[in-house]
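Forum: Protein Structure Q&A
Topic: Joint prediction for protein chains with partners

I've read a bunch of threads here and the consensus seems to be that you should model interacting components together rather than docking separate models afterwards. I'd like to see that in practice. Below is the full input, 224 residues plus whatever partners are listed. Could one of the regulars post the assembled result?
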Amino acid sequence: NAGVTQTPKFQVLKTGQSMTLQCAQDMNHEYMSWYRQDPGMGLRLIHYSVGAGITDQGEVPNGYNVSRSTTEDFPLRLLSAAPSQTSVYFCASSYSHQNTEAFFGQGTRLTVV
Amino acid sequence: GENVEQHPSTLSVQEGDSAVIKCTYSDSASNYFPWYKQELGKRPQLIIDIRSNVGEKKDQRIAVTLNKTAKHFSLHITETQPEDSAVYFCAAYYGNNRLAFGKGNQVVVIP
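Posted by a regular:
Agreed with the consensus. Here's the joint model:
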């Protein structure tokens, strides 16, 4: 199993550009989520999904969209990038949305200039 | 939302000594408390977890204790080694769907 795969690893965007961060898992996990990691702020939940076709907002959803058309994929879209979205983004998946280990992707370092 | 707090933010210990990191949480319905370790430039990885029906759990040099009444849980690392140097995150589920993380503790093991 590859686990959780994120692409790209690094990205530089100009303010106002849009892009999609890809996340795929091959463990047949129901639950997938996106976090951003900023210095001193820990991991903050952006959006999550408890299964295909179901998504919900986390703690910091503004400026981001998600969809979950398949069990395997959970892309994160930045509609109009802003410097405040400069961060490291992690996708995670777990077998269930209730109390099971979260497996993280390798992260995407995004810089918005 | 869920508030998970970690103290202290940075912890320096001599190699061989013990390290303790404490976390508090606010949602009394939380019943699963994992700890993640993140080495520099890498992804967070689970090192130990505990459920609310257990007060303590050990795995070699690592242990976690839970006090549900006081709503706090702690990570204990004994006989610290240089490879224990990392950022450690505590977390708690709330609302059954959301995993909230603390801000993290930098542990530095001094050889």
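The interface with chain B takes residues 31, 33, 35, 40-45, 48, 50, 56, 58-59, 90, 92, 97-102, 104-107 of chain A (CB under 8 Å).
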